[in-house]
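Input:
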Amino acid sequence: MSTIRQQLASPLQLLALATAGIILLPLGYVTAQALSADPAVWSRLWSTRIPELLFNTVSLAASVAVITLVLGVSTAWLVTRVEFPGRRLWEGALVLPLAMPTYVLAYVYSYLLGFGGPVEHFWQLVAGPQARIFSPHSYWGATLVMALDTFPFVYLLSRSALLSMNVSFEEVARASGASRLSTLWRVTLPLMRPSIAAGVALVILYVVSDFGAVSLLRYQTLTYAVFQQMTGRSDNTAASILSLLLVGLALIFLITERWFRQRSRFYQTTGRYRAPQRHRYGWLGTLAVTGYLGLIVGAAFALPASLLIQWSLSPEAQATLDNRFFGFVWNSGILAASAATGGVLIGLPLAYLASRRPTMLNLGCLQAAYAGYVLPGPVAALAVLVLFTKLAPIFYGSVLILIVAYVIHFLPAGLQSLEPALQQITPNLEEVARTLGLGMRATWRRVTLPLVRNGFVVAWVLMFLQTMKELPATLLLRPVGFDTLAIRVWMEASEEYFQLAAPAALLIVLLSLPALALLVSKDWRAA
Amino acid sequence: MPFECSLPTLHRTLLSGLVLLFAAGIFVPSASAADKLTIYSGRGERLIKPVLDAFTANTGIQVELLSSGTTELVNRLKAEGDRTSADLLITNDAGSLELARTAGLLRPLNMREVERAIPAQFRAPDNAWVGLSGRFWIVVYNSTMVKSDQVKSLLDLADPKWKDKIAIPNSGSEYLQAGVSVIRATYGEEKTKQFLQGLKTNADGQVYQKSSQIVDAVAKGQVALGIVNHYYVYRHLATQPNAPIAVLMPDQQEGGMGAIMNVAGVGIVKSTKHLDSAKLLVEFLVAQAGQKLFADLDKEYPLHPDVKADPALVERKSFRAALVPLTKLAELREPTLTLIEQVGLR
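Output:
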């Protein structure tokens, strides 16, 4: 039996190895190109751009981390520890900003906060005609947009930490005379620390690799600079050098996140779970809480979404809804579907082998597939581009190259659903099926596949969604006639044709909503 | 029994469906581009698509457009080599066209129509690229904030008194690269470096990706001055005639270098499989009717001597252009980029 398995596993093994190789090769090429660059280029970049870019990137990540920490934890605490009318509704609404791509939020805010925009007009009514507000095209603008867009990561993780936490800890603290505030400070928050840290690391990873918002807000980060180098220079040396730095930076945050995630396991308390006693607020408290949550959800989702709807209904925007527009929808759909399917097909053997035959080799292959996490869009594009021009130039400019970039970039997101799905079924089930006379293939089809189906669907949807929103790699690698919805939003928005960008942006948001619901419902437990 | 069978079948259908979808995604586009002209365009889609639509309406030849950055597209052509699906390259900058020509990407043309319509200084010696429309790198100013005599030369914008009052394009912009090349060729390395350093300080937070945004910022009074190609100003004025903006033709003073000119142009890609259609398009673009479209729609200076520019523009005869020939922009590019990087422009 086991020999049969081994024989059958070996082609799978080869496939997994090949996949890991294909994913790691581009990264290797970029690294090699950066390291073999003329030292003069390195020193020129060090003396001019790199300090500024590193400072901008790290300081943006830091400020967004602090703000998301406050927003995420406070909102999670409110919906899990306080009772007020409409709590259930807010609990779900706080996830909505995840459906809004950063570039959409960025363009809405460059209108709202822009010079002569509505917020400034309002402020001038209050503070006099010469009053100015901060420009959205600045450090603070980028911070605001990124924080509003990413705080749900911290919210979601904090929320589930608060829900699964054994409330006895808090009750003991209260019984021993600690005040409500000091219980929060000395018991609840320390217990949540690993989840919060994981959420914040996720936010930072997201900020560091974001292209859409920083390009529209003209805030110079490493990711944006890589894109500019690739589009403005005839050789990619400087782009590779900046990419290598960016990969290093992302790697640091990825490792941090992993580390905290692993530590968070020690805190899981089993059994004796009981819903926490919710503190009931009076009308004043309710008003304050509702106002606070309303402000956050309004700024991060409701206001931008209603602006998009209003713009989409304008005659200028309606005029763009022709055949060409539906072509963009079709392009987005077919690209995202291909990438998601490719991702599932490629991720499957990796995840399967790692959970069934966890040898060093198989686990290594799986880890290699997570490399996409540290390859922000422009870097993934650069890596794939360099690889293909060296090894298989025939595919340059074809859809294949774009799909490879997507798969590399988004495979980690898919694997995170595939891996647990495969882990949760025990090999016994398959062995039973085999002893009852089913062939290898029939077992796979009739036992394994139905069991992992949900994980598959989630992985597919996740990769579909990410691909549909993807911007920099699409911009750099799209073949002729393959503009997507995301590209249209960016092209119109970067020339400040807000109305014209709105229908495509709105469609992306609408398509993201059911996918978001599916993802959240996977381990959603109402508080 | 039928139920037992249906599940695996369903899965097989589903799985093979997915695989098909995946395969379809890869192979669909190569089929669709069969008998169309494919154009790589470094010009804004808004500026070139109406002209191409007019061509399609006239000839029935379909056009597929890939709009992107000029340098990016030249890089792409180089990488794709003979396998490219592109038939023509349209760019916003003569230097990029000349670079593409010297890299052997473009096809020399022997067309009487071209030679008759476009003066020799606006095309490559072998006609591998042909200029289509002229543009000048000018200063746009907000007339409520600045008087027209406060700035004489582009170099004046480096003056500390304009701190936080000017907007410039980012360093990836081919206009900026060409403009700096001309300044370098005229004034030398050191003076250009000082100019760029001043520009960098003055435009600190106002470095834009798109020229239309610069004009917009000047019109709103967010900044007082900006450097852009002239037609962005007139296009803005065409939709908002009351905007408080005006064009200042720089470097016209005694002994000044003259306004920096560049052309947008077209070249036929060497490996094209649709040479006849591609030539038809070039012919259409250089002919009076095509030239008039650039003049009317885009507010550029037509290069055909018999076609008049939009009357709103500063009359072409009333100002001098800088003397650096367009073909030299290519060789000037690399040292210019090094300088730009040294100064650390964004």
